[in-house]
Amino acid sequence: MTNVRGKKVLVTAGPTHEPIDPVRFIGNRSTGKMGYEICTCLEQNGANVTLVTGPTTIPLPTGVTIREVQTAQEMYEECMSCFDNMDIIILAAAVADYTPKVVSDIKIKKKEGEFSLALVRTKDIAKELGLIKKANQLLIGFALETNDELQNAKSKREKKNFDFIVLNSLQNKGTCFGTDRNQVVIIDKDKELYFEQKSKKQVAQDIISHIETLL
């Protein structure tokens, strides 16, 4: 891997936490492991990496510029602030699609009966970046699906203007959240590349190898 040497790369990773009150939030099960492995592999091959990461409990990768965020809005702002200077953008974060409309300043107390929480859409980071992507930039996305995996991932690639998308499925046992293994399909404009289950470090190498074929 030499084509990424000297390239400026933006990677997003981890979940976002959308606050409900001072002690509760809406989140997801992303650990950031896949994105962090991508950062490490890029850095080891000479890329200049900026990581925008949501809250995780795993060690941060070394040798890269770190920008830590909590919410989808904060991740959007960080991505937009540095996007123009990047050669490659890899969106591996699991960004919340919705956030509470109103955030309470104090802890919400338990009451009798049901409790309703109004949600509003967050900024679609992938879509926004896809709209302003320049011809000399590569934009790579991820899709985690539970059904109609290939069809949904292909549709997402087209809608977000990704150069390619990395599909992983919750149907693949022993992969995805909280594990060190993954099994992916890389989907670009005219083909699908299927990979066997392997370590996330090896998956990161496969992803970067495919990036290099497009440089």
Architecture (CATH level 2) name: 3-Layer(aba) Sandwich
Strand content: 25-35%
How many individual β-strands?
14
Gross geometry: globular
Global structural class:
alpha/beta
* Quaternary state of the chains: single chain
Rg over CA atoms: 18 Å
What's the rounded overall pLDDT mean?
94
The CATH fourth-level homologous superfamily: CoaB-like
Give the biggest beta sheet: 8 strands, mixed
Helical residue percent band? 25-40%
Describe this structure in words.
The chain has 215 residues and is of the alpha/beta class. It has a single domain, classed as Rossmann fold. 27% of the residues lie in helices and 26% in strands. It contains 5 helices and 14 strands. The protein has helices at residues 33-44, 72-82, 125-132, 149-160, 200-214; strands at 8-13, 18-19, 25-26, 48-53, 65-68, 88-91, 98-100, 119-121, 138-145, 164-169, 181-182, 184-188, 192-194, 198-199. The mean pLDDT is 94.
